[in-house]
Design goal:
The protein is α+β, with helices and mostly antiparallel strands and 158 residues long. It has five helices and eight strands. It has one domain: 3-Layer(aba) Sandwich (Aminopeptidase).
């Protein structure tokens, strides 16, 4: 897969990640990671496969894959800077992640989104089948906001 397109460079080098920019995006502009601490963002990058889209060395988009690099991957924290949206950068990153990990033998990919289903459909994703099989423990402070649920007296509604 091509790593250069229309003045953009797609990198899987964690050293190319501008942690301050990614932290700002996630903690201030995303709906799923509001308030996430910088050290947590750093740890997620260190323990995941990080992907960046850069223009003139500047971070324009970010995504990461949590994976065993053998059977399973969770694609997370996909974010494209507002100034660079509408150019297919998110699709490009996710397609690259799927391609790279498929080459390692990964056969199952999951992700969650509140508003970008069409972007991910273009990458081959569909709604989760067998949803009744999945279980979770979700202690995120942003859980109510992420799921669009009302909070009652400090307790979160499942």
């Amino acid at each position: 897969m091509d790593n250069q397109r229309n003045g953009y460079v797609l990198s899987d080098d964690p050293g190319d990640v501008d942690i301050d920019t990614v932290h700002r995006w996630l903690s201030e502009e995303s709906y799923w990671a509001v308030g996430r601490e910088r050290d947590v963002v750093e740890r997620t990058i260190t323990t995941s496969r990080a992907y960046s889209v850069l223009a003139d060395g500047e971070q324009c988009a970010f995504a990461r894959a949590v994976t065993d690099e053998a059977t399973f991957a969770w694609i997370a924290d996909v974010f494209v800077d507002k100034a660079h949206r509408g150019r297919g950068l998110g699709t490009w990153m996710v397609e690259k992640i799927v391609s790279d990990l498929s080459a390692l033998g990964v056969t199952r990919f999951v992700l969650a989104t509140a508003d970008a289903q069409e972007v991910y459909r273009r990458c081959g994703f569909s709604e989760l089948e067998g949803v009744g099989r999945w279980m979770e423990i979700d202690r995120r402070p942003t859980r109510s906001a992420v799921l669009g649920l009302a909070s009652h007296g400090g307790a979160e509604t499942p």
